[in-house]
Amino acid sequence: MEFFDSHSHYNDEKFDEDREQIIKETYENGITKFVCAGYNIKSSLFSLELSKKYEYIYSIIGISPNDIPQTMEELWKSIEEISKIAKNNLDKKLVAIGEIGLDYYWNTENKEIQKYAFIKQIDLANELNLPIVIHSRDASVDTIDIIKNNKVNKAGIFHCCQLNQEMIRQALELGYYISFAGPITFKNSKTAIPVVKMVPLDKILIETDSPYLSPEPLRGKRNDCRNVKYVAKKIAEIKEMSIEDIAKQTYLNAMKIFEIK
């Protein structure tokens, strides 16, 4: 049984002391493909570095809403830099632009700059014919509005998707994949079951978002890609299927959206 973790951050400093060992153990534990996601210039470069070093790691690069500069001039320079990096690394290991989007939980004072960064990186993805990976937190209305009103050639993924049924319904109508992470396993999650049930099997992905959001029973500890199995197990329980079938389907879905041969 093989698993594909569609979103992780092995480029995060929390892995600085044992990164190579954890990556090795991840692969040996059956997570035979995983994506390392960038969120700013530095982490995007590191993501590409890891994808070139390990055959089974793929890269997405971008500037997240929590990492954008606070002035339009600085943002423009960052967008130019991430565009240059993407164009210079457009090979089989760069599979999407992300994580990009909106976050009104942590940042409410710079909504217009967030929207601008989101739209400009959608334009970059379109130029490079890549899908996008969306981070949306407490910003469902504006997120849907932007992807409805700005053409997205390859659609993409709502990563670590907030369990908002209306947002997910509209995302599915627009052709997006929904990626579930540790929060669906949390004992206090009241919406996990109805939300997982509403997403068709051919649109589900699994992820860890490691080193964050460890699933039950490891909540509070540093997360890594090996724990994607707990997410798959929870989906299998909700869908009343075997974990083997969920692992296989989500693996195929990730291969499809990222266009990995």
Describe this structure in words.
The chain is of the alpha/beta class. Helices cover 43% and strands 17% of the residues. The chain has an 8-stranded parallel β-sheet. The protein is globular and about 50 Å long. The model has no long low-confidence stretch (mean pLDDT 96).
Which tags fit this structure?
261 residues, alpha/beta, TIM Barrel, 8-stranded parallel sheet
Question: Secondary structure elements and their pairing?
Answer:
Blueprint: E1 3-8, H1 19-28, E2 31-37, H2 41-53, E3 57-61, H3 72-88, E4 94-103, H4 111-128, E5 132-137, H5 140-149, E6 156-158, H6 165-173, E7 177-180, H7 192-198, E8 204-206, H8 228-239, H9 243-257
Parallel strand pairs: 1-2, 2-3, 3-4, 4-5, 5-6, 6-7, 7-8
Helix pairs in contact: 3-4, 8-9
Determine the strand fraction and express it as a percent band: 15-25%
Count of discrete domains:
1
**Overall residue-averaged pLDDT value:** 96
Q: What's the number of helices?
A: 9
Task: Report the count of strand segments.
Answer: 8
Task: Please state the overall shape, judged from the principal axes of the Cα atoms.
Answer: globular
From the coordinates shown, what is the CATH architecture?
Answer: Alpha-Beta Barrel
CATH class categorisation = Alpha Beta
Q: What Rg is obtained from the alpha carbons, in whole angstroms? A: 17 Å
Low-confidence stretches: none
